[in-house]
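RECORD TYPE: inverse folding
INPUT: structure tokens
STRUCTURE:
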């Protein structure tokens, strides 16, 4: 069997790594990197650390408006699929690379599988939500990380080809956590003590491209009582400069410590040793849950309500007072989180289903 796996952003590199590892034992996998994340801190370092095979195709699309980026990806992915003629196309998550790969596959009548299907935030202001919904309705195989995700598909009338397999990000986490503990020196390099800092990430356009939301979040992070480490996404840095908020990057009196984007292994160590995580990333919310680290989500909703229902994650939106109050005073669970994301063998289930279809 020949499959084409399409990735382009750092969360997809993490999700694709364990699936690729299993596929390549008995099948031919062609790996396509669209180049949606294109600098070393956001792309190449993840391929190295996750031991992902060198992409067979680097499309080099780069940044741009949603329409331009998606259109260029669609054209270039279609060319690859016409040349390779795979038995299946795999797409991951909810990015422009995801929907571009999905559209290219279905237009060529190539069977499509969506890894991380069924997620919904129900916020149509977010481009990721449109990508999720459209990709699910294009797919013949839908691999859901949780029962809640499968239930979302049922409500939308999608019944055929739906499989609850567990979360591939848990597969990746379990495969790499010991390597991270053995080889990452990020805490020493930054002079951090375990549980002596908070960790924040901000990258979604919903937050970064809205000056008011971005200012509220940065202001809150700057006023939390304990040091906050912020690995800064290129989009976030660009919007900070564009909106003349550079004081947040240079204020030596602030407790906000800006660092360059962290690799996967370093990020795992920053997450595991944080007192608290504040984020707008779905993947980081889950990783916090895997490690039993409290999480504050800087959005009005999340596609990972399992983490909220378990008490390990709360939604505060961009409300400065709520962010500070939650960071300083919220009472968090003391028990180990329930295993709602599977057993770490989602990748094996995905490969078995695809190869037997």
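DESIGNED SEQUENCE:
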């Amino acid at each position: 069997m020949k499959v084409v796996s399409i990735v382009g952003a750092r969360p997809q590199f993490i999700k694709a790594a364990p699936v690729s590892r299993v596929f390549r034992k008995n099948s031919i996998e062609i790996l396509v990197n669209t180049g949606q994340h294109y600098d070393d801190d956001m792309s190449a370092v993840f391929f190295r650390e996750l031991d992902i095979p060198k992409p067979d195709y680097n499309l080099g699309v780069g940044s741009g408006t949603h329409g331009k980026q998606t259109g260029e990806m669609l054209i270039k992915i279609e060319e690859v699929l016409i040349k390779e003629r795979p038995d299946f196309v795999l797409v991951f998550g909810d990015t422009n690379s995801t929907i571009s790969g999905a559209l290219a596959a279905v237009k060529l009548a190539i069977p499509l599988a969506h890894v991380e299907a069924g997620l919904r935030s129900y916020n149509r202001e977010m481009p990721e939500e449109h990508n999720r919904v459209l990709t699910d309705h294009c797919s013949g195989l839908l691999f859901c990380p949780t029962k809640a995700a499968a239930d979302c598909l049922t409500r939308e009338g999608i019944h055929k080809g739906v499989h609850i397999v567990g979360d591939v990000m848990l597969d990746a986490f379990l495969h790499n956590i010991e390597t991270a503990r053995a080889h990452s020196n990020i805490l020493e390099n930054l002079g951090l003590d375990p549980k002596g800092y908070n960790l924040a990430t901000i990258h979604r356009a919903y937050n970064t491209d809205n000056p008011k939301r971005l200012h509220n979040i940065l202001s809150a992070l700057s006023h939390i009582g304990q040091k906050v480490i912020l690995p800064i996404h290129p989009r976030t840095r660009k919007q900070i400069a564009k909106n003349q908020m550079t004081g947040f990057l240079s204020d030596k009196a602030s407790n906000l410590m800006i660092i360059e984007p962290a690799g996967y292994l370093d990020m795992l160590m920053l997450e595991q040793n944080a007192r608290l995580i504040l984020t707008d990333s779905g993947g980081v919310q889950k990783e916090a849950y895997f490690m039993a680290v409290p999480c504050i989500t800087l959005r009005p909703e999340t596609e990972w309500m399992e983490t909220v229902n378990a008490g390990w994650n709360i939604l505060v939106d961009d409300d400065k007072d709520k962010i500070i109050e939650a960071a300083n005073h919220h009472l968090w669970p003391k028990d180990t989180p329930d295993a709602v994301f599977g057993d770490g063998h989602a990748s094996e289930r995905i490969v078995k289903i695809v190869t037997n279809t």
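NOTES: The mean pLDDT is 93.
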